[in-house]
Structures
1.
Amino acid sequence: MDRARLTRLLKDFKQGRIDAAGVIERLRSLPYEDLGFASVDHHRAIRQGFPEVIFCEGKTPAQTVAIARGLLKSGVPLLATRATPEVARALATLDRRAVYHELARTVVVRTGRPRPRGHVLIVSAGTADLPVAEEARVTAETMGSRVAVLYDVGVAGLHRLLGRHDRLLKARVLVVVAGMDGVLPSVVGGLVERPVIAVPTSRGYGASFGGLAALLTMLNSCAAGVGVVNIDNGFGAGCLAHKINVLGSE
Amino acid sequence: MDRARLTRLLKDFKQGRIDAAGVIERLRSLPYEDLGFASVDHHRAIRQGFPEVIFCEGKTPAQTVAIARGLLKSGVPLLATRATPEVARALATLDRRAVYHELARTVVVRTGRPRPRGHVLIVSAGTADLPVAEEARVTAETMGSRVAVLYDVGVAGLHRLLGRHDRLLKARVLVVVAGMDGVLPSVVGGLVERPVIAVPTSRGYGASFGGLAALLTMLNSCAAGVGVVNIDNGFGAGCLAHKINVLGSE
Amino acid sequence: MDRARLTRLLKDFKQGRIDAAGVIERLRSLPYEDLGFASVDHHRAIRQGFPEVIFCEGKTPAQTVAIARGLLKSGVPLLATRATPEVARALATLDRRAVYHELARTVVVRTGRPRPRGHVLIVSAGTADLPVAEEARVTAETMGSRVAVLYDVGVAGLHRLLGRHDRLLKARVLVVVAGMDGVLPSVVGGLVERPVIAVPTSRGYGASFGGLAALLTMLNSCAAGVGVVNIDNGFGAGCLAHKINVLGSE
Amino acid sequence: MDRARLTRLLKDFKQGRIDAAGVIERLRSLPYEDLGFASVDHHRAIRQGFPEVIFCEGKTPAQTVAIARGLLKSGVPLLATRATPEVARALATLDRRAVYHELARTVVVRTGRPRPRGHVLIVSAGTADLPVAEEARVTAETMGSRVAVLYDVGVAGLHRLLGRHDRLLKARVLVVVAGMDGVLPSVVGGLVERPVIAVPTSRGYGASFGGLAALLTMLNSCAAGVGVVNIDNGFGAGCLAHKINVLGSE
Amino acid sequence: MDRARLTRLLKDFKQGRIDAAGVIERLRSLPYEDLGFASVDHHRAIRQGFPEVIFCEGKTPAQTVAIARGLLKSGVPLLATRATPEVARALATLDRRAVYHELARTVVVRTGRPRPRGHVLIVSAGTADLPVAEEARVTAETMGSRVAVLYDVGVAGLHRLLGRHDRLLKARVLVVVAGMDGVLPSVVGGLVERPVIAVPTSRGYGASFGGLAALLTMLNSCAAGVGVVNIDNGFGAGCLAHKINVLGSE
Amino acid sequence: MDRARLTRLLKDFKQGRIDAAGVIERLRSLPYEDLGFASVDHHRAIRQGFPEVIFCEGKTPAQTVAIARGLLKSGVPLLATRATPEVARALATLDRRAVYHELARTVVVRTGRPRPRGHVLIVSAGTADLPVAEEARVTAETMGSRVAVLYDVGVAGLHRLLGRHDRLLKARVLVVVAGMDGVLPSVVGGLVERPVIAVPTSRGYGASFGGLAALLTMLNSCAAGVGVVNIDNGFGAGCLAHKINVLGSE
Amino acid sequence: MDRARLTRLLKDFKQGRIDAAGVIERLRSLPYEDLGFASVDHHRAIRQGFPEVIFCEGKTPAQTVAIARGLLKSGVPLLATRATPEVARALATLDRRAVYHELARTVVVRTGRPRPRGHVLIVSAGTADLPVAEEARVTAETMGSRVAVLYDVGVAGLHRLLGRHDRLLKARVLVVVAGMDGVLPSVVGGLVERPVIAVPTSRGYGASFGGLAALLTMLNSCAAGVGVVNIDNGFGAGCLAHKINVLGSE
Amino acid sequence: MDRARLTRLLKDFKQGRIDAAGVIERLRSLPYEDLGFASVDHHRAIRQGFPEVIFCEGKTPAQTVAIARGLLKSGVPLLATRATPEVARALATLDRRAVYHELARTVVVRTGRPRPRGHVLIVSAGTADLPVAEEARVTAETMGSRVAVLYDVGVAGLHRLLGRHDRLLKARVLVVVAGMDGVLPSVVGGLVERPVIAVPTSRGYGASFGGLAALLTMLNSCAAGVGVVNIDNGFGAGCLAHKINVLGSE
């Protein structure tokens, strides 16, 4: 029930075609979502610059393209994660502004200039963690945050991390990506005062159990103020980092 | 090596009692922490109002009291979590300002008036989740955040939650505490745009496996922008919420 | 916002004290639950005979009594599960009609005569499964179903089960409770055409892992048409059985 | 021992060719299944419209075709689940009425007109859950139930679900399919009074552990009256839903 | 339906009070167990010397005594496992022949002289494994096997085991009990040609996970011909060993 | 040190070329295996008809052929399990008597006529369990046991199993193979008095967790006298069954 | 078969009372352990200063005392781990030199002066890890190593660790003890070149799963050259550290 | 900040261009790693003969080649593990001294003659464990240790191991590699006094759970003095063995 129909209902009431009890009855069964949908949707657009993100895994290219077409038609920016090259090509056909970040497995169509915002720092341990770190980076950037990166600073060579202590301190929020033993967020969390988002990756073998070891390490982190997202969930980390970063700019 | 000793070293160098190579050698083996400790410590005090939190579990009352005595001597506020009544009594003897939050199992000594800050909302599902929710509340408050609570709004009675939608929207950051199926953060995360910190609790039985079920639910949350902390870790959630909340006040 | 306030709003609109846009704005932020609560609540009472069940575990006796007092005041029947003798005594003080089913760890206050309804059969394997089986029985009975039981018919003595095949066939829905290897629901499910609700129990030792073995057995049951509830969740099984049983009486 | 041989035995007895003790001896060693098989089989046909379902996974196309040929010969309907396109083609050669539901990976041959029956509602969260939801739909329909669907109503956009509250209330039994965090059944279970069958799917990544997260969520659901089936078991859910739905039509 | 009723039915048929179709109908619903029960029960007594073993865990002393009284009345021997001293005292009151094996937590009443049978060897690794080893010993002995033991021959002192190689070779079947790393059955299985029954115990700490480590070791044993029972299941091992041992005496 | 060298040593001693202390010293450092190897090897050949079984998984065809060539040279029978068709072809080139059991993935070269022995019964639940059941069958037969099979008697159609009760009773030892819920061994174990070897298979999906569910079911079996082997370990079950069967023939 | 009996056998052979074949036959069945036992035992005493350590858990005080009495009689030092105060008192009665290390839960009787050896460093993270760290310390010291400790240097305050970098570098082998996230060994392993033995502790709560999280962290450590022992296994770490330390002194 | 810049700073101070406070301020923000990096790096080269090992898994051939080129340029030896043949070919193009150990999946470029060092013994159980054993061998050798191997000595044929007892005793440190039940390290650990490094492999099937069974066996080993590395981590074991071996040569 949109505004027009609601106005009509009130007009009918004023003109006596329906009484108060009738109006209440109609309102009672009012489809919540019709009222709420636009509003929520509106909020979404305001706060993040785009209303929906396409998670491509488990969708056919055709399904992905159909959803993307609908989103692009309404003029909102597009963010498609876990996109294979095949999906990227399909989306490129749809809109030639589409940019494929191959390492991040992400397709982006930006429809406006992101407002300069605060500063998210993505820290990662190893080369094999890069796809997840890059997914976080592209996500936060597409949503409107400025992002810096600090890659290949694993704990095995602790000096590499300690030497960039100043860069750690400058960020408003940090996303720390690590596989294997997943100790990097604990160490970074002990060096900074800002919120740290820890992202375990499935990198590793044997008793890493597909990222479980890193996940448990991060959940048990002795450093206070660390929030954890799902294994390999670069998108979620980037999104949460952006939401926190935005707070600092209000 | 504190400032005084460093100044003396430089003086010795200027007066020729030690040459450049000797100074470099001394600096090279300079205990990092002596230099760094005060600085980090200072940072800690500035940002959170107290330099260290005592996790009482696994410590004897005597050990806890000894640590607390040291902290109180230096004039900083005190936060002791997982405190049994016995520990609380011991700390009360130490400092009569000590307040024991029994449900939160937390002892607090506040040495100053917290500056009014932003607004953290603690949301919880069931009566049995209250100790964890309260630990989060006391933690964030002691660190200097204003905190509101919204308890007993489990998904089984969804209307109770939807009816307080406005309260959800007003908070700058939300801590959502739930045991059993742990679905509350997913639902709340779908209703708000702000960062959500999810806290699984060990409440439940059978296939809840001591909170594992709730933990996995939260890590897999379809709502973007949810960060998860360890099972029953009300302290960590309160601390992270405060850190995020502070960003909005800078 | 209840009916009175809504009527007043419409009156204000009719009399021109507020325009259509104002009404829409007010309705937009209309607390959903105030409208919905009574209705949902009403539904609850109609369909199950009582609006809320108290799960006593993790609540203090005082908390339990407080909730029970509220429920009894509104004249609805009371069902309190996982009640210790101590809680039972406290509830008995509150209302002398309170009956404590010790084996089922359940307190019941029935405020009316349950309408005769269909027939739920509770089947269980061993003596140690009885508390769970009894919780299911008391729950379904209190909600208004007729219940029959068939206890101690484990698969180790298959003839005991096969000899009561006729009793299995007469039930409209079956709750099958088993610990250890949890095979009973698979066997029963192969003998009847009716819906079977399988309840694993934590009975067992070693590789039963607190009921996990039985749970997995039941989830993988080769017999089609078996729904599983949580380990030891007699209440959930009784409630679901009642809901299904009710369908046959409509 | 079929009816003919049994009649002959009784005739022999009446005519004195065998005495009572001899008859009893023969009956004692009576192959149970020969007696029971037809009866059970007969029951099966009556209650579900077909005596056996072929689970194709782990069978060669040749094995599947052989079993299907036997079933079709006896004039019963055919339901083959987890059928690859290759198997579907083989079955199509066998009987040209065979319909392949590609998304549901199911082949159906219906030999009669299903009697109009009650109403099962299949609810699912995401695009990637559709194969499981469709398997449930085809199963319940083939067994004789009317089925409605409500797809893509995940909790991340709660308004989509709340806006169809009326459709949820109309169903006699609901099958709720969800992967990732698996929270949808808890939310739906809090909105309806009817039996809810929860189906976790293996959709997800990382800490979803192949559907384990969703499974645990559902088993721990705070909503009473939820029965759970195995991960990805659309067939089992459809079958159980049909069995429950049938009760309402008796 | 016992013999008498069956005879009556046949008589009615012969005298024309019921026709063949009526008899078939009655036979069709013939309670299987009435026919089968005695026979199976009889088999039990013949093959093992006693019809039922009481697993005391999860039963009250009163329940245990009631079951024991019934068994003793029928003159069969009694085996009650996992018996606490309290239960043992209660059973001793019931029958003064009752012997309590404290280490094995088992009460035995033997009503006859066991026939001399083959030779079971119980091998165990550590002092803490003795209760399980002893449960196996008492079980096999009570059932009628001769039993020898070889205790405290853990792999850490391999020479102790190798030095008794001849004793290993003399047994007809071996029960090997081990906790912690559970390697003993693999080593013994490599030294003998006879069937080996491996019993993991819950002895250990940390990553023994309550016996899971030992269980997995045994299931993966590189020695062929090793069968495994549940963690701490001395009874099951003793029973299986006896069944195998009996074969060699037939 | 073989017999020849030992004889020479003793001769040297007798002739005074070495004294007693020297002999003892030589014996002390005597390589245990040289003495033991032949003996154990000899035992192996006597008891099982062949000294070693080749587990092909994880070996290259070349490695497998090399081991097989060595075994065949010494005139012993050959049993190669988990053999791919490629390996089977390679072994066929080596010895034209080699028979490939495709379903059992096993290559056999029998060098003598197996002595008629007792009777092992292989029972299995579903079509997809056949490879494991057949591996058990080929193994026990190759080792010298007579084997009967009873396939496709899953618990979902219990009558099929009960109807063959007599066949179950005739076997000296039973191997029961089942995937999914793994309940078949529990049911069979309740029907027979003989030793039962339970083999879980990895057949299944979702919460079967690669056979873990069936494994746990079997370990927790309420039927006493069930020994369990590793998931899919048809070889181990066949080998253990043969060892038990042999006892009955001694 | 000891030297005396062997000499007699050889004498019999020389004097013709037994022939070569007879001697070989006797030697063939020679109890391995009788030959090997003394030698191995002797080795033990030489290399570690005591032949056996008593793990008290799961033993009664009486059993522990009996074993200790035997060891003390032979004049070797005594090490009893996991000793309760009750056990400690019992051992003190046995030998008044017995020292009870309460925090380490260990009783030691040293019978000689340990030779000065290399230097083991025990590093630990938190107060609650001390019992395990102390068990390692007492073990290595009792076995004869010099031991230094560096406690309370968790990663949350990284400067405390970095400030003692020189102390880390001086040790010949390091034992690093940590619970919760277990990151300390990874960090230490990145700072030193020496062997690091990592000991996870069961300290923690929630997703630490009794030390599993710390264990997995350590097994996946990105720092090369880290060996891990069981959760809480201070004894094993101390013993391995001593064995490595000894190498450096040879 | 290198030595040159530091000298310049001190010179400025001496000449009054900067005061003590200024120097302290500069030192305070001194990049830790610039000071520490060279030193640590230098240590690395001295102690192991090469500063970094390339773990190829999860890196593209191009990334691997780029890292290798950098390392070779600085004249250090190269060790690349988990190298596919494709990567090996690429590295061979880079430097023709590159040797590919196919079984060990490792590429080595040695730039100098390794100093003769102590003796590491690699022991392994089965043919399928060889890749891991070989990775350990190549790693220890490349780092500068002498290495001996003892392959195919699984516990199923215990005599093979016992017969080489002398070879076990000669090694300074042992690496024991085993999959399946993983019992070999326990047995070896009971035979030697030296440090044992246990390496579980992922070899196996069913309840080996990808090496988890072997890992748990080793962590629970009853033999004291066993350190465990990650599943399949031949590199880590070889590296740790080398570090321990080096101690014995100092």
2.
Amino acid sequence: MSEHKNEVKLEDIVSLAKRRGFIYPGSDVYGGLAGTWDYGPLGVSLKRNIMNLWWQMFVDGRDDMYGVDAAILMNQKVWQASGHVDTFTDPLVECNTCHARHRADKLDDANKCPNCGQTGTFGEAKQFNMMFKTNVGPVDDENSVSYLRPETAQGIFTNFKNVVDSFYPDVPFGIGQQGKAFRNEISPRDFVFRSREFEQMEIEYFVKEENWEAEFEKWVELCKQWFTALGLPESSVHELEVPEEDRAHYSKRTIDFEFDYPIGREELMGLAYRTDFDLKNIERVSKKSMEYRPKDGSDSYVPHVIEPSFGVERALMAVLVSAYREDEQNGEKRIFLALPYDLAPIKVAVCPLAKNNEALVAKARDIYAMLKEQVGDVLWIDSGNIGKNYRKMDEIGVPYVVTVDFETLEGDQKDTVTLRHRDTTNQERVELSNLISESKKR
Amino acid sequence: MSEHKNEVKLEDIVSLAKRRGFIYPGSDVYGGLAGTWDYGPLGVSLKRNIMNLWWQMFVDGRDDMYGVDAAILMNQKVWQASGHVDTFTDPLVECNTCHARHRADKLDDANKCPNCGQTGTFGEAKQFNMMFKTNVGPVDDENSVSYLRPETAQGIFTNFKNVVDSFYPDVPFGIGQQGKAFRNEISPRDFVFRSREFEQMEIEYFVKEENWEAEFEKWVELCKQWFTALGLPESSVHELEVPEEDRAHYSKRTIDFEFDYPIGREELMGLAYRTDFDLKNIERVSKKSMEYRPKDGSDSYVPHVIEPSFGVERALMAVLVSAYREDEQNGEKRIFLALPYDLAPIKVAVCPLAKNNEALVAKARDIYAMLKEQVGDVLWIDSGNIGKNYRKMDEIGVPYVVTVDFETLEGDQKDTVTLRHRDTTNQERVELSNLISESKKR
């Protein structure tokens, strides 16, 4: 983490997200639940667009990728084998004065409690396991303990053999998964950046050991293509080659891709070469072979793994930060989200100039219906004045606003509409016959 | 539940689902975790297609619907207010001999333990709460208790005010959500029909009280359209008007749509008029007003609610049961899935007749690339003989198989391919220029 910060302030993003219906605090009406967030209508769309783009780019669009969707609740042996039960911990200290608990490594001054202000109040740090624990079935005992998965990756490894048995793909091949993961953060913070419930998009890419370096390089490039698709400026993304002493003991190479968030330069996603650590762990605990038998009759082997691990919320936050813009129009401050077309929750808004003229509204409705059919994600607006509508559409990142006016109905300009561009605020007169292709321009 | 059963056997579906990579037992490699299931590559696609179709039909495709995606972990007050903490229970009995626990109302003979066979061994039934419990944050006490949501509906109600504040929609309007829900079933059973972790698609449709009956009728029709889109035969879906004594006390009308599963006639989805019960509960516990203020200046009111509640797994299971077919081809038994085109994980498979002829394979690759670009969801197959390929494609419900042969390369039939139809096994010679439109035929 460096001190470089993006110019956009975190509170601007949080405020826009709540005001416009992207993201609300979880359980808001009951005073919240720390570290949880609810997606409103526009946030759901943005998140779906990001996740669908990923799925298309990394799973559906490739011949060497297989999707899975494993259960969140898994047999506790999964987390014993993976090492999470023993080592997935953060250091926890308790204040002897007010009994507030804090994450020891995140305290500015370990001698002063951020809750009550008392100094010299902490004892020694204890290791706190970050997995949420529950019991499955009607008996509460050690055998029924289960955890909310702290990562989706293990749901992939445990299905490695199933996928090979059903599909027998050639190596290299990958298995991808999207889904919720949970970490009982001692101090969740920074909006959706560090929350207790979040969404991951992970790939385990299975390779022959001798090919790992070449395959790793390919994934570095693929990750960069992904950042471009998200509209992240190249200058805001940084490759951190994680040095040996900071890597997991089994990893021979790890790159953290960092992004200049308003909170500083922080991890956007990770790319790790995990050797055969996970499949070997499964062999050890399950006593089942994880060997892959090549079709050419050569020796069987346990594949090695490259893991690109994407966080949906961190991607979404980077998208919002990258898209957030302020400029001045006619002497007034304007806020707009310059979202990439494919990610924008709404592509076009259609608006009749007057809402009490029947012919005008009918014409606008026809145009709306046509666009909805051909473009999808179209919004109808018939309230407020034009200027107010534009400001609202700018804030939710709508690339195009179509205004239907009296000239659309008759005269020289019949069957033309005003098309207004979000990023430039330029307006042009467009013929209806060209409207669909214009509205689909990226 | 009636005794009518679908001809398809449950074990045929389970076996096909595992063999072909639709659905595997959860945590399979570690001996499983009862009541959890993992989706393999084809299952993920089928599930995504069902969920995306629903989202398009009920959220994106409508002007009166808003999507949300609330956190799974919610403030415990949500479940106190909704009544789940007190009453979301099943009766549990324990065997005094072997200490196995069972759901009392599902025992064929309450005097004989299904585990050890002892008779007269049960004491009185206790109420067992079906919510999975966990603790959020670094302190394990009553205040940090949270639950895995047993339904997605409350994530909608708690966001009612947020959505109104951000979007101010006219009533009637609805909020839709898709997502995981969890119930600690005492005895999970019947494949994905009754599992401990499942996926819901729920809508709360907010109406003025006096309009509830008319709006309810509209939803009955919409549900039927949904069943048609899923390819469920009309004769397999039954409307059960739930009598007053079986309805939740706050519901004035409930319809259970039942389906003829192999396990009998069981609930596919529910449609309930819930009055203003949920929003009033939130008012009571949160002390915040849930009133809606009409734009025309008339009196504010708490909207009433119609709730169509869809289970993804139950829909998916009904789709598989409806699509499962056996017939005879050339004296051999054939199994095929007559999936609706939109739901089929793979729409077209492309196969070169010989895999060691370079020109043939190159031509087939070109055709594959063209279809992948234009149709999506295309599979490349170049192993096994043609007959074996057809059998495999039939079992995973691929509507079309394209075979590229030597005639495709030159002569009279140049630039034509064989297009084979799943349901009839008919084969026809199709010109490449028509292949895309033919492959998109529903």
